[in-house]
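Continuing from the previous page of notes. For each protein in this section, the sequence appears first, followed by its structure tokens. Read the first protein now.
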Amino acid sequence: MSGRLRNLNPYELHKYLVNVYCLNKKGSTSALARDSSRDRTDLDVIRENHKFLWDDGDVADTWERQLAKKYYDKLYKEYCICDLTRYKDNRVALRWRVEHEVVAGKGQFQCGSKHCTNATGLRSWEVNFAYVEDGEKKNALVKLRLCPECSDKLNYRSKKREVKRLKKSRKKKKKRKSKDSSSEKESSDEESSLPVPNELAEPTASTSTTEKEATDKSLWKKGVPEVEEKSREEEFAEYLEDLLL
């Protein structure tokens, strides 16, 4: 047996001795179990190094902070999810939405309260979120979409600023009014510039030619009416405005 052990390399010898010890030791082998009390998962690392807002000056100098920064970059930071459990104490918890909430429309097309699923009568609120992070007081303006009942809870202590959007019909009416007024002004200026014919005098060849030249000049001055064409960026901005508000 000793000759067999001599032929084993250190790792094989270690396994052999440990197996013999485990098989021959009386009682439980829990003493050989590895201590996992200090183990950390990726989620634990993110929780320890997470920030609600990362500034431009914040440097991710360790791998833990780099992991938290990558997680922050993948978050959808347009609308927040709030917890209104302690709204009477003016304590509202806020966090950014995660992927499955964005896909389900939670916080945008459904009420942004954590425990509410109402999707009717939603209103947009701009909230000044004051919080303490790394022993430092910070402020951030965030946007919430809440149903009427949760809106009352949010404004229980102080009235928040409601974000409203003008209807497109009003904008179109204003544009049409401005266009009509400008076209009426141009037509009146053109009419005043035309020569007034003398009804008593007999029409001659010279007067008819001058009138024709004047009308031709006015037509050339007027030119082709311009049609406003929206650029791709403007159309995309209007689409996002309708989608987000």
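Done with the first. The second protein uses the same format. Note its length before scrolling.
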Amino acid sequence: MFDQPPEPAATTTARPAALQQSSEFARALGACGQTPLWLADSPQSPDVLVLRRRFAGGLRVAMINRAPLDDLPELIAQLRAAGLGRTPLILTPETATADLARHGAVPLMSPAHVALLDLAPDPQQRRAALHQKWRNRLNHAAAQGLRLTRQNMPDDPGHWMLAADSAQQAARGYRSWPVPLTLAYARQNKGRAKLFQAFEGREPVAAMLILTHGSGANSAATYHIAHSTARGRHLSAHNLLMWEAMSWLAAKGVRQLDLGLINTEDAAGLARFKLGTGARLHRLGGTWALWPPLGRLLRPLAALDRRLMQA
């Protein structure tokens, strides 16, 4: 377990939207043949991106991931207006939402945590926020004579980082974005998919792909794919690339870097790496299933399971 300061209390300043709720993500999905739906905003709720999937047997499901769901009745009304009023929903709110259980949503998975890194402080503050061991590895990497590069992600499905990441997913039994979706993001959002690489001589030893999204005060970035070779790990190249990415994003006015899910059981080393940057834990709202036509009937079941989401 990693010691973390408590998450700051909510303020009136909106947090930048997650990648899964960005227009950049919607463009990439559209380029891959999917038809995401934007629910128009209202005074009660912000824009919400809805994904639609059709499974074997003709089952249609709508999914809303990492959105603030502060007004569920308004959301259901908008879904009804969009013709999805009788479609089962899978909801993963950005934060805990009490209304879900009251409207018959049934919990499927308890809340996960992501690591969010504030990029607002100046370089000295960011460096001071690093955990000591992380800072030591950064200093070690800086002394190794590595050559760093930054470029837009090449439109190359055979790129060594993508191939290495696909092999790692297969070996460890997890799934991330398919390669065509990653490349579509880069094509549809020029300059928004930045590839950072570290070379020892001519040999690449580490790479990191950062996706940026949003603009102005709502600009943000997401740590998407990274890979380090055995030699790269020996040289602490991943730390040097992360510091380079943090510094570049901050200089571009990006407010927040989403480092993704924290899994202390199956990926403790990666969790330590992410939290070592000075990032804080942010608790998501869990995963819920909601079928509006049966909401009233499912309320008792949802109430019984509500404690699962409060653990």
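What the second structure shows: The domain at 114-283 is CATH 3.40.630.30 (Aminopeptidase). The longest helix spans residues 237-251. We return to this in next week's lecture.
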